[in-house]
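Researcher: Let's do a round of design. I'm pasting the structure tokens now; please hold your answer until I've finished.
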């Protein structure tokens, strides 16, 4: 089963994220990654969820999320027309001997070393999830102290916007 990215436009109210997450938990749907932020309208937030499931599971997720009062619009992101990005912050234990090799790998992946101390460094990388996975696989020979990934966020190419007509339009 492939990963599916679902985008929600929701009212920017306390508890909305909790209700969406509880819906996934109650139904046994797993959230692989989750990002939330306000949109250009401060009253509206965008939730981007990456999940795994077959076509029926994805249909159920969409039907169930549309039932939540605060959910204004739901769509499955098309990976062929959506730009996907994720941020990785990675802390590695290093020695002087490691620095040249790590720097070369960072250069290939267009990653940046954003902090360097005597025995460790922090790397920042932004890209598609597959690029981040490949970067981590190449660096597995080094000791990872800590890593943090933001989760996927997406936006479709072109001038069309993911929005809603009015608060009832997503229920039809």
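Researcher: That's everything. Go ahead.
Model: Designed sequence:
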């Amino acid at each position: 089963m492939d990963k599916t990215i679902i985008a929600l436009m929701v009212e920017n109210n306390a508890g909305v994220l909790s209700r969406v997450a509880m819906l996934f938990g109650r139904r046994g749907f797993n959230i692989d990654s989750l990002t939330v932020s306000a949109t250009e309208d401060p009253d509206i937030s965008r939730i981007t969820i990456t999940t795994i499931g077959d076509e029926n599971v994805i249909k159920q997720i969409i039907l169930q999320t549309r039932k939540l009062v605060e959910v204004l619009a739901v769509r499955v992101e098309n990976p062929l027309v959506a730009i996907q990005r994720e941020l990785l912050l990675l802390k590695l234990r290093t020695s002087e001997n490691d620095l040249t090799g790590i720097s070369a790998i960072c250069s290939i992946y267009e990653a940046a070393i954003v902090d360097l101390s005597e025995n460790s460094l922090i790397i920042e990388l932004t890209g598609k999830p597959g690029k981040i996975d490949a970067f981590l696989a190449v660096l597995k020979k080094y000791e990872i102290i800590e890593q943090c990934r933001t989760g996927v966020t997406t936006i479709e190419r072109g001038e069309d916007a993911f929005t809603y007509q009015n608060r009832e339009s997503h229920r039809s």
